[in-house]
């Protein structure tokens, strides 16, 4: 083995330079041309950055559309799922509590109509999206809290639905942050 | 839901369409035939010259393994010390601390062996420098090590009788310059333009629309995420891995990432067929592996898509299993990823496996227990080769002929190695799980930093699954986890570290040794009496051997974990 150690060391040094120094620097340089200059795509309101397009935010206020439960409370300093199993009794209680909370905030909604994603935590804890159904079910509450007509809010949600990839693959979704920013401008 | 199924099928088709020509290309690269990347020839000659490598000096299998172990030893020591002292080194904008010695031991081994089990979280556990010069670097070179090892197998069966099996450093270098680096550059650019961070800026602080103060972790992630998939490594830049919306921003990047991780293991199988000029053998192997993949994929898909029984009990109409999953990806794409990432030993996740349905968990574990359906970079085919040799031996006995593979007699010595390797993987997993289960049940209050009683995020059978999954993932060099397990403490860091390093090198050395020994033997031309190994019948035989040897060994353990949980939940 001894005769291979020295070539190994030299080859390793060379590869570290290429793979861990040149390669990431090249990608960083190229990404300057990408949206957000490779720092992540931000969204601004009145010239002030209010968030990242891809990072979900905590919305608990009734006048905003709420996103999904998060295991990290939407602080993107970290990221994690709950890692709870369906068979876990504590978890069962947690989901029951979420259902109850949702029903208190959304009077007039039947329990059985609650979309699953609104009472289950996302994988990253930072899910920026909800499904169109999960947005629609909150329309009544949001419209009432803002004294807007439901139809106006429904139109706004419809405008924010992003269809499947290429129109054929994957789910449809609504970006909660973008929807809420648009909601703030609605008269 | 329909568009989500379409997405999964489309993803598989795209993978296949890329893998086939890529396999041809890889065969040409290792044959030294003309390819479009020949402009790199002078670069490679330069590398050999400055590193003192004679590319024309061919090695036998023992020299190959000596070279492989030497260079891996260098990387292990290097990685361990960087991680241990990372906070004193530059490029640490978030001010992350040094790793503890046991965590550095675990992490260095984990990335060295292409496992990428992570007992830390990317945002807080490593510096940008470590992410690049340790993690990204090892993701490239560990993948190239696997390919270089399987290239020895290619050479062993391409010629009649030979001891000369090419040069390890040449296989290694070419894998990086001709395959991994070019593909990584393309993929990293795709990711960066879809919103994955690639700059060196540290955490950002913002006030959200609702008025909360939060931080957003970033960093030069795109390049690492590219090789993490292309190299079937799987270790994420962020803690949530590819469920993180910056690591995997949309459905398109999800397709790119899952295609990237599956296409090279697939391509290597085609490459084997092309390289030894027995295309049909390559197709039969591919067929068996695809059958194995479907055996796990179909139950997993059904189990995930039929929804969460808990939500049903609580009276919801929509019971979609969204715990631990992301809306932009959806259930089918997450279920597809769960199986692919476990059979090909990547171990990156786009949903939290701990929260998947009980039977899905069983399929994910079986994927790692068999560990040869497509399989990891290079090592998948090496694992499959072990089962193939066992199938040759059993078939030979059944029909009363001397077992032969590719014109070489398979004799006692090779069979002993194959049997040891086939049993070694269950041994590591089951002994590890038994040990941890012993501490958890008999010494739950031990005065360790984390008491065994507090290891689990979920009680009962699922807690057992968390331990079983951890050792399965370590031994299979997969790296995914039932992440609820409290694994960053001395017990788990040390035991899984040992399992990972044994689970890497023994299953590489074994098959390479068999290939080397067979290659040296006298070549017996095929006759009417030769057992045909490139037929459907033999393919079915191999499939049966894999299922009997690899899958059934784990049946009792799976019964205590996911199967028991299944019967309690429904």
Automatic annotation (TrEMBL), chain A:
Quaternary structure (record): The system is composed of three essential subunits: KdpA, KdpB and KdpC.
Entry coiled-coil feature ranges: none
Pfam family for this entry, one: KdpC
Family annotation (PANTHER family): POTASSIUM-TRANSPORTING ATPASE C CHAIN (PTHR30042), POTASSIUM-TRANSPORTING ATPASE KDPC SUBUNIT (PTHR30042:SF2)
Membrane topology: Single-pass membrane protein
Highest taxon listed in the record's lineage: Bacteria
Keywords: ATP-binding, Cell membrane, Ion transport, Membrane, Nucleotide-binding, Potassium, Potassium transport, Transmembrane, Transmembrane helix, Transport
Main localization of the protein described in the UniProt heading: membrane
Subcellular location per the Swiss-Prot or TrEMBL entry: Cell membrane
Listed GO MF terms: ATP binding; P-type potassium transmembrane transporter activity
InterPro entries linked: KdpC
Protein name: Potassium-transporting ATPase KdpC subunit
Any one cellular-component term (Gene Ontology): plasma membrane
Family: Belongs to the KdpC family.
Function: Part of the high-affinity ATP-driven potassium transport (or Kdp) system, which catalyzes the hydrolysis of ATP coupled with the electrogenic transport of potassium into the cytoplasm. This subunit acts as a catalytic chaperone that increases the ATP-binding affinity of the ATP-hydrolyzing subunit KdpB by the formation of a transient KdpB/KdpC/ATP ternary complex.
Keyword Ion transport on entry: yes
From TrEMBL, chain B:
Record-level GO cellular component terms: plasma membrane
Lyase is among the record's keywords: no
Membrane topology: Multi-pass membrane protein
Any GO MF annotation of the entry: P-type potassium transmembrane transporter activity
Domain of life: Bacteria
Ranges that cross the membrane: 6-27, 66-85, 128-154, 175-193, 258-276, 283-302, 381-399, 420-440, 490-519, 540-564
UniProt KW keywords: Cell membrane, Ion transport, Membrane, Potassium, Potassium transport, Transmembrane, Transmembrane helix, Transport
Transmembrane helix is among the record's keywords: yes
Compartments, record wording: Cell membrane
Role noted for this protein: Part of the high-affinity ATP-driven potassium transport (or Kdp) system, which catalyzes the hydrolysis of ATP coupled with the electrogenic transport of potassium into the cytoplasm. This subunit binds the extracellular potassium ions and delivers the ions to the membrane domain of KdpB through an intramembrane tunnel.
Family: Belongs to the KdpA family.
Protein name listed in UniProt: Potassium-transporting ATPase potassium-binding subunit
Species classification: Bacteria, Pseudomonadati, Bacteroidota, Chitinophagia, Chitinophagales
Gene: kdpA
């Amino acid at each position: 083995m001894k005769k291979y150690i020295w070539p190994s060391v030299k080859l390793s040094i060379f590869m570290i330079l290429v793979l861990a120094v040149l390669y990431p620097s090249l990608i960083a340089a190229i990404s300057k041309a990408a949206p957000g200059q490779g720092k992540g795509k931000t969204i601004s309101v009145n010239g002030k950055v209010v968030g990242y397009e891809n990072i979900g935010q905590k919305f608990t206020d009734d006048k905003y559309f709420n996103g999904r439960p998060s295991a990290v409370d939407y602080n993107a300093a970290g990221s994690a799922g709950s890692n709870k199993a369906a068979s876990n009794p504590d978890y069962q209680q947690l989901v029951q509590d979420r259902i109850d909370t949702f029903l208190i905030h959304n009077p007039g909604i039947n329990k059985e109509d609650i979309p699953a994603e609104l009472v289950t935590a996302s994988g990253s804890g930072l899910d920026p999206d909800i499904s169109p159904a999960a947005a629609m079910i909150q329309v009544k509450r949001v419209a009432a809290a803002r004294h807007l007509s439901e139809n106006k809010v429904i139109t706004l949600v419809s405008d924010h639905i992003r269809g499947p990839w290429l129109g054929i693959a994957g789910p449809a979704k609504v970006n909660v942050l973008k929807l809420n920013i648009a909601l703030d401008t609605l008269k | 839901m329909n568009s989500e199924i379409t997405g999964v099928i489309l993803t598989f088709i795209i993978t296949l369409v890329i893998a086939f020509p890529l396999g041809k290309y890889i065969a040409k690269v290792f044959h030294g035939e003309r390819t479009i990347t020949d402009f790199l020839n002078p670069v490679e000659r330069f590398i050999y010259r400055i590193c003192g490598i004679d590319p024309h000096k061919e090695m036998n299998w023992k020299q190959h393994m000596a070279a492989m172990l030497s260079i891996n030893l260098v990387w292990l020591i290097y990685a361990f010390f960087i991680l241990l002292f990372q906070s004193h080194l530059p490029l640490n904008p978030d001010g992350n601390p040094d790793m503890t010695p046991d965590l550095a031991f675990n992490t260095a081994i984990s990335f060295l062996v292409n496992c990428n089990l992570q007992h830390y979280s990317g945002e807080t556990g490593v510096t940008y420098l470590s992410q690049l010069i340790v993690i990204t670097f090892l993701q490239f070179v560990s993948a190239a090590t696997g390919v270089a090892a399987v290239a020895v197998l290619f050479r062993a069966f391409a010629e009649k009788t030979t001891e000369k099996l090419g040069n390890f450093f040449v296989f290694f270098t070419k894998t990086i310059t001709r395959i991994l680096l070019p593909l990584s550059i393309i993929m990293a650019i795709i990711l960066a333009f879809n919103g994955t961070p690639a700059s060196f800026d540290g955490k950002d602080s913002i006030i959200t629309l609702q008025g909360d103060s939060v931080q957003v972790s970033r960093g030069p992630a795109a390049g690492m995420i590219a090789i993490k998939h292309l190299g079937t490594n799987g270790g994420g830049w962020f803690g949530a891995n590819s469920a993180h919306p910056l690591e995997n921003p949309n459905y398109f990047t999800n397709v790119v990432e899952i295609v990237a991780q599956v296409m090279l293991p697939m391509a290597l199988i085609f490459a084997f067929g092309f390289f030894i000029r027995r295309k049909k053998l390559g197709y039969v192997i591919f067929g068996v592996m695809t059958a194995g993949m479907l055996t796990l994929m179909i139950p997993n898909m059904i189990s995930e898509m039929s929804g969460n029984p808990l939500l049903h009990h609580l009276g919801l109409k929509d019971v979609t299993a969204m715990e631990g999953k992301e809306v932009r990806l959806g259930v089918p794409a997450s279920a597809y990823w769960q199986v692919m990432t476990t059979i090909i030993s990547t171990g990156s996740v786009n949903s939290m496996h701990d929260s998947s349905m009980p039977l899905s968990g069983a399929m994910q574990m079986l994927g790692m227990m068999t560990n040869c359906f497509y399989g990891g970079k290079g090592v998948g085919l090496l694992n499959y080769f072990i089962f193939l040799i066992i199938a040759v031996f059993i078939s030979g006995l059944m029909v009363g002929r001397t077992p032969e593979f590719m014109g070489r007699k398979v004799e006692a010595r090779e069979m002993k190695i194959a049997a040891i390797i086939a049993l070694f993987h269950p041994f590591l997993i089951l002994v590890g799980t038994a040990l941890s289960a012993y501490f958890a049940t008999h010494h739950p209050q031990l005065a360790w930093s984390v008491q065994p009683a507090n290891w689990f995020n979920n009680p009962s059978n699922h807690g057992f699954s968390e331990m079983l999954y951890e050792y399965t993932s370590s031994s299979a060099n997969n790296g995914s986890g039932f992440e609820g397990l409290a694994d960053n403490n001395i017990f788990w860091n040390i035991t899984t570290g040992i399992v990972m390093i044994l689970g890497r090198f023994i299953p590489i050395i074994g098959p390479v040794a068999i290939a080397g020994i067979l290659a040296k033997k006298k070549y017996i031309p095929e006759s009417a009496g030769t057992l045909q190994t490139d037929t459907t019948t033999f393919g079915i035989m191999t499939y049966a051997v894999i299922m009997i040897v690899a899958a059934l060994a784990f049946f009792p353990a799976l019964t205590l974990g996911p199967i028991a949980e299944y019967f309690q939940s429904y």
